[in-house]
Design a protein that fits this description.
With 214 residues, the chain is an all-alpha fold. It has nine helices and no strands. The chain has helices at 2-15, 17-29, 38-62, 66-88, 93-114, 117-140, 147-161, 164-190, 200-212. The longest helix has 27 residues, at 164-190.
């Protein structure tokens, strides 16, 4: 009975997430993301609905497990990151840190409960390596990628690394490929090769979809 109530509880929490995420995002960037009124109410509703739907999708895929908790955390904080990147072109380090830290706690619980310490070790190693590689790319092309994108790559690698080398590579490939497609669309629409766009939403979407099929 308790287990059966968990998805409903998480779904309800997802529906309440909109106002909380918006306020967290605004605190992280230090400015309001939208004016009060109808627009703000619609944003609350959209974020809450998307968060709840993603949590339920994860439940169908992972069941009531610690990995599902990691998924729910990734989706919830991911929505906050999408908000800040779309509205302010920023991926605040406090939000990215919370995104990675909560996932680490959930995966640590999964490793302890299911005795999957090698998976956790690989995930942590993958996060360090991918972050280092992303930092090198940022240093080589600072005008095309920011520190938030670099940190997000490392955080995503933590989640993807839990599913092994294949899951890691597939997830990074999907995230990078989706981002490249978005970049091509932006260039085609703006007709400028140096057009900038928020990469966080496409990176998160590609990685999360990959996790569902890992």
């Amino acid at each position: 009975m308790v287990v059966s109530l968990v998805p409903w509880a998480v779904g309800a929490a997802g529906l309440l997430a909109g106002p909380v995420l918006l306020r967290l995002a605004e605190r992280a960037v230090g400015s309001p993301l939208t004016a009060p009124g109808l627009t703000r109410a619609v944003m609350f509703a959209v974020v809450s609905t998307v968060t709840a739907a993603l949590c339920w999708a994860g439940w169908f895929r992972f069941g009531t497990t610690p990995v599902w908790l990691a998924w729910c955390w990734a989706c919830t904080l991911g929505c906050g990151l999408v908000l800040t990147d779309l509205r302010c072109r920023r991926l605040p380090f406090p939000l990215v840190t919370a995104f990675a830290g909560g996932g680490m706690v959930a995966l640590l619980g999964a490793a302890a409960i299911e005795e999957r310490w090698p998976q956790l070790g690989f995930a942590c190693g993958a996060a360090v390596v991918v972050f280092a590689l992303a930092a090198l790319v940022q240093a080589w092309a600072p005008n095309h990628t920011g520190g938030g994108d670099t940190a997000l790559y490392g955080a995503l690698a933590l989640y993807l690394g839990w599913f092994g080398l294949e899951g890691l590579l597939r997830g990074l490939l999907m995230a990078s490929a989706l981002t490249a497609v978005v970049a091509l669309v932006v260039v085609a629409c703006s007709r400028r090769m140096n057009s900038q766009f928020p990469a966080g939403p496409s990176l998160l979407a590609g990685a999360l979809v990959s996790m569902l099929f890992a």
